[in-house]
């Protein structure tokens, strides 16, 4: 080798430290994975939203997560637990993708094998989802092929400096290795030739090697396209359902909800309204993304231990007599004083009428409800037939159910926690026995029978607030669905319990507002509240976490009065 050639190689050799090739590989891997996810979302708009790779893998993660992990997620992230999970999955994928990219830039086939592993996981996850069809693996397959193609293209476009670095590290399989070597020679023969971009001396107008410019354009372009495709694909998937929901005309109820009493509100600012707006209503479920079902595709199948199985379309359900009722729902994950509880005006078909029609077996003590995403809940058959007014709801606060809250159809059962009764996106009712089948949360250590516990909450003043001495109105809500609240009491520090004033309610199935006028004195004080239901049961002071059948204890706040 000539002295000039040796000098040229020394000039091209990168400074000691991490070789440039590594960050090129990391970027390539992230770009390829982003493209796979984005294309997968677009294809899933046609094959069904749950078939998208991120949604399918996330769904498996949700199902496989231990109960303590789920409880931790709800406690920490509240109703944003699914968003946090998706962010975590994306972060793990990014690390895996960066590794694949680095490997691919050094050994292409090893990188492609990593893509195949990623694709296999996605295919298995999508194919095993409860609502899976033959088309569910297609988004993952399309995404994996696109990722592999982009890795090959980026490897071929790898800047020559990085290719030379690979040779310096003893990697004779770097992309365009022969071209890189030729580029070193080109520097001697004619570095200023506009037709050569092999050496570092050949720069574009911005002072960068053309190979680097093309590499960055491809990689960043793929990431940008994915950033548009992921929400775009989900938007396409949801747009049809939103349009179909907007076209629904709800029938007038044959039995309207009772008019709200004039004094249903205590008139204290800061207390949650008697009727919770749909946008403020809590949402806790196992669906990583909101299931999307058009009314024309919806079917309800009632089967199992029955004499007369029944299948209904959405139109047939709407044609049945409708009942409208105010009902309070509560989540079993709600901590004492928490806000995973809400009250709304529901419109629907009485479940009792449907069960009477199919004639259940006398031994069928459980109704297993299934969602379109495979979620199951087990409700006591007796609770659906005892006249408490359980509904297959199609409307909420005068409008078709919001998609987030179960459109087209969900269950609403007064007096039971949602995990055993309030299945959203309902598609199936199976008459069964508790001894024969354990529903989703029961298999995860929750109780099979779960009546809502009597609870009271202080909405105002907020805990930690600094108050001025004198009259302070302490107020909030209390609930004991299907039993009703008969009394609410408040005490300051360790003083005697004081009776609060109760607002009126339309039935025992809703929460009840309350207020208590307090002559606040200077100092730090502890305020505590308890409720009594219509059976005479006083809210317990024993503190217990939500698992296995709901939290107990008394809501307590601390304030400072000056």
Provide a brief overview of the structure.
Keywords: Membrane, Transmembrane, Transmembrane helix. The strands form 4 sheets. Strands 2-1-10-5-6 form a 5-stranded mixed sheet.
Structure description:
The chain crosses the membrane at residues 83-103, 108-128, 134-154, 215-237. Residues 288-435 form the Oxidoreductase molybdopterin-binding domain. Keywords: Membrane, Transmembrane, Transmembrane helix. It comes from Streptomyces achromogenes. Mean pLDDT is 86; it is low at 1-20 and 163-208. The protein starts with a helix and ends with a strand. Helix 3 (53-64) packs across helix 6 (108-127). With 562 residues, the protein is an alpha+beta fold. It has a five-stranded mixed sheet. Strands 3, 4, 7, 8 and 9 form a five-stranded antiparallel sheet that branches. A five-stranded mixed sheet has the order 12-19-18-14-15, with no helix packed on it. It has helices spanning 3-12, 20-47, 53-64, 67-77, 81-106, 108-127, 138-156, 160-168, 177-190, 210-246, 314-318, 351-358, 381-385, and strands at residues 299-304, 310-313, 323-330, 341-350, 366-371, 376-380, 391-396, 399-400, 410-412, 426-432, 455-460, 466-467, 470-479, 485-492, 498-499, 501-502, 512-520, 523-533, 556-561. It contains 13 helices and 19 strands.
């Amino acid at each position: 080798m000539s002295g000039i050639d040796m000098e040229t190689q020394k000039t091209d050799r990168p400074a000691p430290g991490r070789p440039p090739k590594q960050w090129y590989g990391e970027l390539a891997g992230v770009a390829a994975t982003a493209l796979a996810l984005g294309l997968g979302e677009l294809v899933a708009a046609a094959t069904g939203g749950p078939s998208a790779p991120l949604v399918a893998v996330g769904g498996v993660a949700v199902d496989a997560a231990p109960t303590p992990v789920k409880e931790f997620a709800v406690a920490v992230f509240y109703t944003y637990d699914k968003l946090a999970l998706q962010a975590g999955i994306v972060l793990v994928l990014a690390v895996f993708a960066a590794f694949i990219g680095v490997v691919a830039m050094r050994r292409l086939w090893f990188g492609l094998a990593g893509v195949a592993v990623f694709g296999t996981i996605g295919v298995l996850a999508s194919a095993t989802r409860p609502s899976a069809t033959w088309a569910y693996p297609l988004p993952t397959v399309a995404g994996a092929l696109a990722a592999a193609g982009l890795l090959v293209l980026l490897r071929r476009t790898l800047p020559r400096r990085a290719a030379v670095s690979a040779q310096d590290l003893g990697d004779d399989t770097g992309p365009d290795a022969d071209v890189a070597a030729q580029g070193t020679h080109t520097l001697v023969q004619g570095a200023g030739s506009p037709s050569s971009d092999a050496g570092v001396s050949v720069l574009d107008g911005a002072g960068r090697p053309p190979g680097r410019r093309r590499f960055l354009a491809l990689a960043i372009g793929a990431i940008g396209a994915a950033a548009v495709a992921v929400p775009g694909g989900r938007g396409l998937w949801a747009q049809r359902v939103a349009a179909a929901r907007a076209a629904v005309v709800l029938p007038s109820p044959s039995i309207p909800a009772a008019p709200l009493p004039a004094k249903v509100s205590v008139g204290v600012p800061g207390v949650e309204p008697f009727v919770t707006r749909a946008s403020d209503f809590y949402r806790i479920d196992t669906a990583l993304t909101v299931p999307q079902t058009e009314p024309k595709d919806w079917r309800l199948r009632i089967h199992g231990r029955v004499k007369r199985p029944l299948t209904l379309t959405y139109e047939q359900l709407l044609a049945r007599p409708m009942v409208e009722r105010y009902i309070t729902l509560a989540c079993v994950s709600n901590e004492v004083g928490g806000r995973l509880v809400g009250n709304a005006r529901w419109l629907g078909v009485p479940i009792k009428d449907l069960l009477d029609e199919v004639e259940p077996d006398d031994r069928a003590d459980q109704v297993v409800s299934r969602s379109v995403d495979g979620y199951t809940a087990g409700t006591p058959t007796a609770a659906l037939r005892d006249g408490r007014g359980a509904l297959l709801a199609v409307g909420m606060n005068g409008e078709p159910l919001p998609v987030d809250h179960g459109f087209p159809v969900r269950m609403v059962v007064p007096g039971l926690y949602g995990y055993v009764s309030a299945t959203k996106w309902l598609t199936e009712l199976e008459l069964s026995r508790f001894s024969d089948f354990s529903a989703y949360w029961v298999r995860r250590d929750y109780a099979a029978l779960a009546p809502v516990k009597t609870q009271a909450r202080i909405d105002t003043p907020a805990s930690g607030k600094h108050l001025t001495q004198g009259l302070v109105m302490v107020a909030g809500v209390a609930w004991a669905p299907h039993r009703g609240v008969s009394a609410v009491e408040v005490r300051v520090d360790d003083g005697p319990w004081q009776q609060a004033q109760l607002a009126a309610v339309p039935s025992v199935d809703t929460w009840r507002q309350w207020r208590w006028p307090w002559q606040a004195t200077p100092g730090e004080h502890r305020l505590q509240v308890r409720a009594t239901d219509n059976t005479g049961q006083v809210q317990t002071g024993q503190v217990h976490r939500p698992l296995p059948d709901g939290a107990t204890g008394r809501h307590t706040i601390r304030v400072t009065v000056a």
